[in-house]
Amino acid sequence: MIPRRPIAVLPPEISQRIAAGEVIDRPASVVRELLDNAIDASAAEIRIELREGGLELIRVGDDGCGIAPAEVELAFRHHATSKISSLDDLLTLRTLGFRGEALPSIAAVAEVEMLTRDEAHDSGMRIVLRGGEVVTCTRAARQRGTTVTVRHLFYNVPARRKFLPGGRGESLLVGQLVRRYTLGHPSLRLSLILDGRLSFRSSGRGSLDTAIADVYGSTVASCLLPIGPLKIGSTTVRGFLSGRAMTRPGRDHVTLIINGRWATCRGLLAAIESAYRPYLPRGRHPIAVFVLDVPPSELDQNVHPAKTEVRLTREQEVAAALARAIHDLLGRAPVHPPDIDDLSYAGGQYRLPMPRRRLAERFETGWRVTPGDELTPDRLRDLHVLTQIHESLILAEGERGIFLIDQHRAHERIIYERLRRNGEHGVSGQALLEPVVLELKPHQARVLEERLSNLEELGFSCQRIGGRDFLVRAVPLVPLQESMAVHIQFLLEEAAREGEGWREQLLASLACRAAIRRNRPLERSEMEHLIHDLAETSAPAICPHGSPLIMHLSRGFLQRQFDW
Ligand code: ADP
Ligand code: MG
What we know:
Layout: E1 8-9, H1 12-15, H2 27-40, E2 45-51, E3 57-62, E4 80-81, H3 102-108, E5 111-117, E6 124-130, E7 133-140, E8 145-151, H4 158-163, H5 167-184, E9 189-194, E10 197-201, H6 208-216, H7 218-222, E11 225-232, E12 235-241, E13 246-248, E14 254-258, E15 261-263, H8 266-276, E16 285-286, E17 288-293, E18 299-300, E19 311-312, H9 315-331, H10 340-344, E20 345-346, E21 349-350, E22 362-363, H11 377-381, E23 384-389, E24 393-398, E25 401-406, H12 407-425, E26 430-439, H13 442-450, H14 452-458, E27 461-464, E28 469-475, H15 485-495, H16 502-514, H17 524-535, E29 550-554, H18 555-562
Parallel strand pairs: 2-9, 14-17
Antiparallel strand pairs: 1-4, 2-3, 3-8, 5-6, 5-8, 6-7, 9-10, 11-12, 12-17, 13-16, 13-22, 14-15, 18-19, 20-21, 23-24, 24-25, 25-29, 26-28, 27-28
The chain binds adenosine-5'-diphosphate and magnesium ion.
């Protein structure tokens, strides 16, 4: 248990410098503040009860340290806190609260009852406040811990009460909140009771993967890949994330837990989103939980009074490292055929490998990826080519089992990365034997015109010669089967496509056209060459369009399938 200071009112010169603002604006924010207090009191078990979405009743009970009788009234005074006593304390802050504003703000707009007892006293206290005024404060029995009951929220702020949505919406919001706390505090046993019925319970088993199983179910949890711990300066990041095997239609399942608190951090979320983009089907989003441990001095959580939007002083560095790790993990994860054992036996009982419909996950079982099987350069170089199959797949054997490699996609990946490298170094392209004149649609011509110098870097030499006509003299150097001229119209149209990511798209298209086709016989040496070159790429498991290119049949998988 964190040793606790007595509660004291912060002097004005401190309280004035802490971001203030409306903290209590709806039942969910009451729940959040009461949960924070219970966690700061080192509770192991917290029970949250709501009636009518919290408008009638919110009750949060904990088994934490409780409050000494002499401090009970003080706890409801503005800027009264046991968590900081100077601004310097903010630099080493490890508690969720520190403003001393929650209890008085709640008490001002509701009827509040607190029953609490600390370790040092035989009996506890019950205090009742209404509209901020103490109604009673008497001795009462309780085990160590605190229960806060909030009734008739906003009874004296009719405007606010009127504009709150119905109970169901608020209950959903509180459900989401409690699940976020579960991810942030895997050792806590949280239960949520809505209108008398248990709606959610976390097991408190203590590790992040068990907390994820509590929130998303064990089937989802078993499909996530561990990442980290990454050390970035004095920041540590670890987590679990889904690959293509498990996606959701909405963006809101990337969870950041920063120093124990669910948080949003725009820079990090944007980096995660764009790191994922090449690996997920269009319109699908990942499930991921990242837990960051940041030195309090490098974390600015004073941005917003509700404390959810944070900034890191080394945000860019952390974002870049995170993006690289995601790229490494997903780009090196081969696909596996669905494995009975992986999906159906979870948490000690057999389950159908079916998503819970409410969560709308999409399983693509063929995309099962397994931690520890990443395709490192060495593992790829050590593969022994056995033969070609259907003139399209390379069959190879390695220490970890059998691998099927799609020759076309492997070659695409190799060419794509070469083109990108050349683009970064501004390598000039190959001159066409005869320059080609092409006519584009007006909007395409407009977009292309703006990108001519970017295209130059990639190896295109292209100029506008009036109207919608462009003259192409050179194109990036790729090993083409047919003459390049056949493809130029298509490529320029790709280059003129609106929106972000056009470069990657263009290079992927170019790579696709240049890559060895399927249904083409290959010599053993060609296959060996291909795998060797693939080993040098940054994402050998995924083609530039995001599709898998290596399937792995592990020894364990074969053993299970044959029942050896
Ligand atoms: P803050 O959490 O910012 O300090 P609050 O108004 O939320 O301010 O709470 C005031 C004080 O009351 C806290 O600093 C803490 O000492 C005490 N307190 C509130 N809730 C609890 C609880 N559940 N268990 C123990 N102490 C609590
Ligand atoms: Mg608090």
